[in-house]
Specification:
single chain; 436 residues; 9 helices; 23% helix
């Protein structure tokens, strides 16, 4: 949007073109960089951003309706009056897609807990709204009730970081709702969904009472929590009746919760094509208790393993074990995000290499380069050995995870010696025992 504004300055002919655009996207990543580098400028940057958005909204007099309004910046209740005005603008312009994201992925710029509140003016856009995403915008149970009754054409609903929401009930009156996402609503107790065309469901947060009814088209589910005391078992109980129709399943699992160490008797995932497992754990934990979930998906084609929060300085010795023979006949891609070359991820990789008889590629993402270099070097040495275990024609693709906005000051490198763990240390993974 700022690029268009610059054009209007350069050319008189283009002066008012941006004022007639049917899609308005507001985001300022450079301002976010400046805030991260110097937090004291946050108030000025917020004021500048709000002034910019409000000026465009005030001057957008051309088209009778707009398709999209997206606003992304770290805003708080101080700017509630502006948010109210933007909501009125969306209502008057019969917006189809409304996306307000006032969060920041950095705690540094999101210290205030006072979120903006979305006004109950959405009822007047009931004939147009197709997609509504509100992140770090507080909504109430009353708001959701109004939404369900009014926005009959709604296909996508996202609610995130709302501290007032306690009960989210979506009835069959939202016949067209296909995508529902609810994340990190700290006081939420119940989600009760009864909508026949639901295709994807995402929930991240503490264990709640979860009911999904009549979702005959449900094929994509993402669920879990970062919290150390959050068990994932409730999710399987709630989703059991849909296990055979799922094509994509993503689980966020904190292994500090003892009940998350393993999954016993997983449901039959007979149609699942892609599993994504996001583990929060220390290096002394093991992921092998979750291999039974992979085995329960006979047509699985892609397995993504995401690793976060490891104590890489205190890894346990590698565990000797006899890898079970459970051929993963359809698995073609193994993706490891956050690979550190420690026992916790090597054991898991070893299991896959032993059993994935049709594996074509391994994709490895290393953590950002500001990790201590000795550990990064050790992980790369482990990857070199991993490559030697693959037969000809199989590939390992290496990628670096993206940096944050700025590079932190480099600290002196620790005096450590990282010795890569030989993959052959796993019983059943000698050169002549790979299951290809």
């Amino acid at each position: 949007m700022k690029e268009v504004a610059r054009l209007s300055v350069v050319s008189h002919r283009w002066k008012y073109i941006w004022e007639n655009f049917p899609r308005l996207h507001f985001e300022d990543s450079r301002a976010m960089e400046r805030i991260l580098e110097s937090p004291k400028v946050i108030s000025d940057e917020r004021s500048n951003f709000v002034t910019w958005v409000s000026r465009v909204v005030d001057q957008h007099f051309g088209v009778a309706a707009i398709d999209e309004l997206r606003i992304k910046f770290c805003l708080t209740r101080t700017y509630q009056s502006h948010v109210d005005k933007w909501a009125v603008f969306a209502s008057e312009k019969q917006v189809k897609t409304l996306d307000l994201n006032f969060t920041s992925k950095f705690n540094l710029v999101n210290m205030e807990s006072a979120h903006c509140t979305f006004p109950l003016k959405v009822a007047s856009i009931k004939s147009s709204l197709i997609s509504l995403c509100l992140r770090s915008v507080d909504v109430t149970d009353e708001f959701i009730g109004c939404l369900v009754c009014s926005c009959i054409f709604l296909e996508k609903l996202c609610v995130g970081n709302s501290k007032y929401l306690t009960n989210l009930r979506v009835s069959s009156s939202l016949q067209r709702l296909k995508h529902l996402e609810v994340t990190h609503c700290s006081h939420l107790k119940i989600i009760d969904i009864s909508t026949p065309n639901l295709v994807s469901f995402t929930y991240y947060g503490r264990a709640i009472e979860l009911h999904i009814r009549h979702a005959s088209w449900l094929s994509k589910v993402a669920i879990g929590s970062r919290e150390y005391n959050a068990s994932i078992s409730y999710a399987f109980d709630s989703l059991l009746q849909y296990s055979s129709q799922l094509e994509y399943l993503s689980l966020m699992i904190n292994l500090k919760c003892e009940s998350n160490i393993q999954i016993i008797n997983p449901p039959a995932l007979t149609n699942l094509k892609h599993i994504e497992l996001y583990f929060i754990a220390c290096c002394n934990k093991s992921l092998l208790g979750w291999t039974s979930l992979i085995v329960a998906a006979p047509v699985l084609q892609k397995l993504t393993l995401k690793l976060y929060g490891f104590d890489i300085k205190h890894a346990r010795p590698i565990a000797k074990h006899n890898a079970c023979r459970c051929p993963l006949k359809c698995l073609k891609t193994l993706e490891i995000v956050g690979f550190m070359g420690r026992p916790i991820d090597l054991e898991f990789a070893a299991f896959v290499l032993e059993n994935a008889i049709a594996l074509e590629e391994v994709i490895v993402d290393f953590p950002p380069m500001f990790r201590p270099k000795p550990y990064h070097k050790g992980a790369r040495e482990c990857l070199v050995e991993l490559k030697t275990k693959l037969p000809p024609g199989r590939y390992v693709h290496e990628r670096e995870l993206p940096q944050l906005f700025h590079q932190p000051k480099q600290e002196p490198e620790p005096n450590v010696n990282i010795t890569p763990t030989p993959l052959a240390a796993f019983t059943g993974l000698g050169d002549s025992h790979l299951g290809f």
